[in-house]
């Protein structure tokens, strides 16, 4: 198993295991529940960007379980998924309220600049 997969696999199993009892308890899922199940399926199939997009759409519509997962994916994006997921402070606040969690503080991240060779330029004098 690759090292990157070994970092996030236990977390994924834990999250998806927590989703199963709620899904089984509802006899006839509505549209939001079906869409949430599709997002979880994308997540299980390691299509994380697709899953995040589906989850944030549902979270923005007020679906609490999707808000909880979207918030978790946002908070753990750099360490678990090696991605900085897009979100606004207003979205994060709304998702946190829906999920019953404290509102996270957005922190700027700095990334090392890659060294790129700069072409030597010389100015030629116009006659």
Provide mean pLDDT, rounded: 78
Radius of gyration: 20 Å
Distance between the termini: 66 Å
Assign an overall shape.
elongated
Order of helices and strands: HHHHH
Question: Which band does the percent of strand residues land in?
Answer: under 5%
What is the number of helices?
Answer: 5
Oligomeric state, counting identical vs distinct chains: single chain
* Main sheet overview: none
Strand count: 0
Low-confidence stretches: 20-28
Please bin the fraction of helical residues: 55-70%
Give a description of the structure:
By secondary structure, this protein is mainly α. It has one domain (3-99). 62% of the residues lie in helices and 0% in strands. It has five helices and no strands. α1 packs antiparallel against α4 and α4 crosses α5 (89-99). The chain is elongated, with a radius of gyration of 20 Å.
What key attributes describe this structure?
127 residues; mainly alpha; 5 helices
């Amino acid at each position: 198993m690759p090292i990157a997969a070994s970092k996030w696999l236990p977390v994924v199993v834990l999250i998806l295991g927590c989703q199963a009892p709620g899904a089984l308890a509802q006899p006839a899922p509505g549209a939001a529940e079906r869409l949430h199940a599709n997002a979880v399926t994308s997540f299980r199939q390691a299509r994380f960007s697709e899953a995040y997009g589906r989850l944030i759409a549902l979270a923005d519509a007020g679906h609490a379980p999707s808000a909880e997962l979207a918030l978790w994916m946002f908070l753990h994006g750099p360490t678990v998924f090696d991605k900085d997921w897009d979100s606004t402070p207003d979205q994060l606040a709304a998702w946190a309220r829906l999920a019953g969690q404290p509102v996270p503080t957005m922190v700027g991240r700095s990334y090392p600049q890659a060294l790129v060779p700069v072409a030597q330029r010389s100015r030629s004098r116009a006659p």
